[in-house]
Amino acid sequence: MNPSIRSCRRLHALALLSVASVAALGPVPGRCAADDFAAPHLQKSGTGTQLIVDGQPFLVRGAELNNSSASSLDYMRPLWPRLVASRLNAVLATVSWELIEPEEGRFDFKLVDGLIDGARANNLHLVVLWFGSWKNGKSTYQPLWVKANQARFPLVKSEEGRSLNTLTPFGDATCESDARAFAALMRHLREVDGRRHTVIMIQVENEMGVLEDSRDYGPTASREFSGPVPAELMDYLVAHKDALVPELGELWAANGSRASGTWTEVFGPGKPARKAIPVRTLCPPMTEQEHETAWRGLFWPVDEIFMAWRYARFVNKVAEAGRAQYPLPMYVNTWLQQRDHAWPGTYPSGGPVPQVMNIWQAGAPAIGILSGDIYVPEFEEECARYVRCGNPLFIPESRGDARGAAQAIWAFGRHDAIGYSPFGIDRFAGPDSDLAQAYDVVAQVSPLILEHQGNGTMTAVLVDHGGPPQSVRLGSYQIEARSSARPGGPTPPERVAGLFISTGPDDFVVVGRAMNVYFSSATKPADNVGLGMVEEGVYSDGRWVPGRRLNGDETPEWKALRFPAERYSIQHVKLYRYQ
């Protein structure tokens, strides 16, 4: 076994204990223990983690509104029915600091209450996105009394001393004010929703980090950067030395695995002096090799690690203040490093990107999930990076087209994802979208997905139109999915998913589209595998309702499941062996 996989599994267990301990924080004053137990929370399930709502595991078929949509109840009114028609069960909606605290100390929750009422009226849940100090590496959703007072709420400084349009995480007054506002929001949610559980998760801030430079060069930041790495971070790294993600563990080892020292002594050099950071880091100035490799690792590592620690500590204080009022599951989201945003500062430096996830786990234990906003083509790779070291998979922003629909199904099946959410649902909400059609099938099989999460009896593949077959093992069978399309029929999407659930040693429920699926023995190569029974059908209220019994021409070569290109469908197959 790869040592990094083994070490991450060790940290996986520790992280799940951390999730459990966070979920078990003491009751909020004025609330009974039964209320705390009933609140949505994260819970370990086998090797995975599930979101529990009203005592039952919950699979988020989500979508995120455009950033400013939830600022107007009139705008939302005609949108709600379209969201329902999209087969969502949860909507991700912004609550911004500027709209709930327009004057310091005076809170207005009319918009929050309107969102909750709208969701309830349409039998939907809400995931609230707290746009406090940061949104996309900038500070634009704060009250004017914050924006206009840089003496009290200082900004990040570039190396040249220029103020950037983002609040520094080194501002104590900023952290205190943000935390106070967030605590007021969570207290209000407890009061109006503590028994109904319309709101099931909270995103704390949005894609935080420094843009336009690799770190903060302001006076407070520079003073801390020249000092020692905090003992609490060093103690965490030492305690988890064999269980760190490879990007961080190898970097630390290359610098001597020091247990103390200044930031540069422990983590190596930062950005070269007076190095300009372009909007994108295409070659030039990057070499061709850097363009292919740098986006997966730490570039100018100490700058990003330094900022990650400080953002994590800031966010942890905000999250702790909120959890003290109402301990809903909380996560943070990430603008990812990518091929043409490979240097810190071209993407927000200090956010919870995969290579610094251990820094965030050390600095922000009140956060239950580190999430990536995955728009990049390397979807599978990024998901794999985010499920390391005990971190559950929740995808709060991604694509909502046919490719996105396939990604959602794959993430649920391959990585026991808690949820999937494309961004900008306002633009394509409705019953005829690829997302709605895929979510309809996911809704049918959700009880099965939730039953099989974390126990090794479920998996998935992604298949590209005209691309090579994809193979995966499940139980004692090897499963191969091949792209297919009937001559003269509809052109299938560029990418589709196959979801496989083993409901018994020789029984499978399969979700697919535009593919043929073949089974072979993974344990006895001499055995032939036959299709004992194949049914198409649907699930209604959790019960299988069979349609046609398929064989002959409907099962190519009498040994494959055929899924049409028009939309995702479900088949139930019983296998047998012969020689």
Explain what you see.
The protein is α/β, with parallel strands linked by helices and 579 residues long. The chain folds into two domains: 3-447, TIM Barrel; 458-578, Sandwich (Chondroitinase Ac, Chain A, domain 3). The chain contains 18 helices and 23 strands. The strands form five sheets. An eight-stranded parallel beta sheet has the order 11-10-9-6-5-4-13-12. A hairpin with a 2-residue loop joins strand 1 and strand 2 (48-53). It is globular and about 75 Å long. Mean pLDDT is 93; it is low at 1-34.
Which features would summarize this protein structure in a list?
TIM Barrel, 23 strands, 579 residues, Chondroitinase Ac, Chain A, domain 3, 8-stranded parallel beta sheet, globular, 6-stranded antiparallel beta sheet, alpha/beta
Gist of the model:
With 579 residues, the chain is α/β, with parallel strands linked by helices. The strands form five sheets. Strands 11-10-9-6-5-4-13-12 form an eight-stranded parallel beta sheet. A six-stranded antiparallel beta sheet has the order 14-17-18-23-20-21, with helices on one face.
